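Bumping my old thread because nobody answered last time. Still need a sequence for this structure:
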């Protein structure tokens, strides 16, 4: 039996103690969280740090329970990306503050310039030029941080299928990943994946409406499949709302075996049809 570890107080213990046995993904997740813990993130982005901490705990627990498994590697990867998202958010906030400070300094310098005598005008203009350079640097830092956040969002494609359709951005999660057979309680690995989705949606898109659609395969009674798909959609909606997405933005609907994406005659096709789709609907033009 593998020993338990004190995850939150000493996040680097696992990486040191189990360097020879822990998968590379888990060691990378610990390294990413350690860097995050040493940054100003806990003061500037505490919610994101908390999410990263929770996901690292899930990855460590999976390693304790299951060893170097696919689930452990997936959870470790999600943890690493969560830490990177938190770091990117922190860098954006730092850049925004620097940008605001630089703008304020420029405005103050302009006001001083109007009051300065001609003898001091040259020195004041040099100061304004220097502060303009600081503003340009802050803007570049902000743009770099935003690009890192977009890249972290794109990494969701490793955890779920993401594609653009006329109805909006569709994030598809396999029912086998989210739920046990014929159940609608979220599995632990599903919570880690949905935490990553919720984190991206709360940071990158705060206004679009979100429709959670549940589906089943064609086996079983129609009434049972309709109820099961509705319960599963509502379970995903509840989790997203509990992780920061406004409740009035999210609706849930079960479609049972309707709209299959594969042939129900094969086991593989039925597995593809048992799914939940999170549709981020495009904003309507006014």
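Sorry it took so long. Here it is:
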């Amino acid at each position: 039996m593998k020993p338990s570890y004190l995850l939150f107080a000493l996040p680097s213990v696992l990486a040191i103690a189990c360097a020879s046995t822990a998968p590379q993904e888990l060691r990378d997740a610990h390294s990413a969280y350690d860097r995050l813990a040493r940054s100003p993130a806990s003061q500037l982005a505490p919610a994101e740090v908390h999410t990263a901490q929770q996901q690292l705990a899930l990855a460590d627990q999976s390693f304790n329970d299951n060893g170097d498994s696919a689930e452990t590697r997936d959870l470790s990867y999600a943890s690493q990306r969560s830490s990177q998202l938190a770091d990117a958010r922190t860098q954006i906030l730092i850049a925004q503050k620097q940008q605001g400070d630089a703008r304020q300094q420029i405005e103050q310098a302009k006001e001083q310039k109007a009051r300065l005598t001609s003898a001091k005008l040259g020195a004041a203009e040099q100061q304004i030029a220097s502060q303009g350079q600081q503003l340009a640097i802050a803007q570049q830092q902000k743009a770099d941080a935003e690009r890192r956040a977009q890249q972290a969002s794109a990494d969701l494609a490793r955890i779920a299928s993401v594609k653009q359709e006329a109805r909006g951005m569709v994030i598809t999660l396999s029912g086998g990943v989210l739920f046990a057979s014929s159940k609608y309680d979220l599995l632990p690995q599903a919570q880690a994946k949905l935490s990553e989705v919720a984190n991206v949606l709360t940071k990158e898109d705060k206004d679009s409406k979100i429709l959670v659609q549940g589906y089943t395969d064609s086996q079983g009674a129609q009434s049972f499949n309709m109820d099961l798909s509705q319960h599963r959609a509502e379970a995903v909606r509840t989790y997203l709302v509990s992780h920061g997405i406004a409740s009035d933005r999210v609706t849930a609907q079960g479609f049972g075996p309707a709209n299959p994406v594969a042939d129900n005659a094969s086991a593989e096709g039925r597995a593809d049809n048992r799914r939940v789709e999170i549709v981020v609907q495009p904003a309507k033009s006014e």
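The radius of gyration is 24 Å. Let me know if any region looks off to you.
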